[in-house]
Amino acid sequence: MQLEAGIQRQTEAEVSAVAIGDIAVAASAFVAGGKAAVKGFLAGRRRMGTQQGAQLVLHVTHIKPIQHSD
């Protein structure tokens, strides 16, 4: 939930992510369905025939697993 103008609001978003090099290797060791904290930057996806910036992609520069605590 997010607070906006004093009102609780349910928010959802789906963003594609890209990891390259050592970050991709680290990400490949994660368990499917697990959680991770990531840092990076957003950039517009470049595709021929589409407007640049129409879809955002998260370029991951740091990734760290979040340990599940019961």
What this model shows, in words?
With 70 residues, this protein is mainly beta. The protein has one domain. It has one helix and five strands; from the N terminus they run E-E-E-H-E-E. The chain has one helix at 22-28; strands spanning 2-4, 7-9, 16-18, 36-44, 56-65. The strands form two sheets. A three-stranded mixed beta sheet has the order 3-5-4. Strand 1 and strand 2 form a beta hairpin. The longest helix is centred in the middle third of the chain and has 7 residues, at 22-28. The radius of gyration is 16 Å and the shape is flat. It starts with a strand and ends in a 5-residue tail after the last strand.
What's the SSE blueprint?
Elements: E1 2-4, E2 7-9, E3 16-18, H1 22-28, E4 36-44, E5 56-65
Parallel strand pairs: 3-5
Antiparallel strand pairs: 1-2, 4-5
Total count of strands: 5
Helix percentage range: 10-25%
Summed over residues and divided by their number, the pLDDT gives a mean of: 86
Low-confidence stretches: none
What sequence of helices (H) and strands (E) makes up the elements?
A: EEEHEE
Cα-atom Rg, whole angstroms?
A: 16 Å
Strand line-up in the sheet with most strands: 3-5-4
Number of domains: 1
* General form: flat
Distance, first to last CA: 22 Å
Précis, in short:
By secondary structure, the chain is mainly β.
Q: What are the salient characteristics of this protein?
A:
40% strand; mainly beta; two-stranded antiparallel ribbon; 10% helix
